[in-house]
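Consider this:
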Amino acid sequence: MTTKMTHAIRMELANAVRVRYAAAANKDKRRILEEFIAATGYHEKSAIRVLNSPPQPRSRQTRQRPSLYDEAARGALIVLWEASDRVCGKRLKALLPILLPALERNDHLKLEEEIRHKILSMSAATIDRLLQMPRRTMRTKKKPRVVPEPRRRIKMRTFADWNEPLPGSMEMHLVAHCGEAQPR
């Protein structure tokens, strides 16, 4: 039987039943265990393990913090990243105090003071995190390697193509190196 219970609800139910299960006699434990299995859908051994384990504290819910950097800051960072020839976050962090005033001085970029301050205060890890999506979309796929026509036609021998003699075999040449001998 499948149940639609979430893990948190199962743990809540286990915490509620655990005290009763520990204090019950063997007959009652069996009944409690069967009820718990019917409610949660656990296998019998898993249910026993859960009910015999110490109580689990309630899991802490992760809070969602509002982002410090809005789309305007991200857009300006992408422009700076493109202007720096798409360097990594660590190098871009070191380059920002030089690059930003230079682009503003030459009227290539105009930023509000708040956005300018946010960009200059970003860490290298934050820069990398904010540039994840543009990096993924701008990656180009490598073209397949083209093998020249003559190389495709001519069979090349590699180290695996040589048929070496087996160990223990012997090769002999019966050649005389003394030249032709005249019979006398």
Notes: Residues 61 and 130 are 25 Å apart (CA to CA).
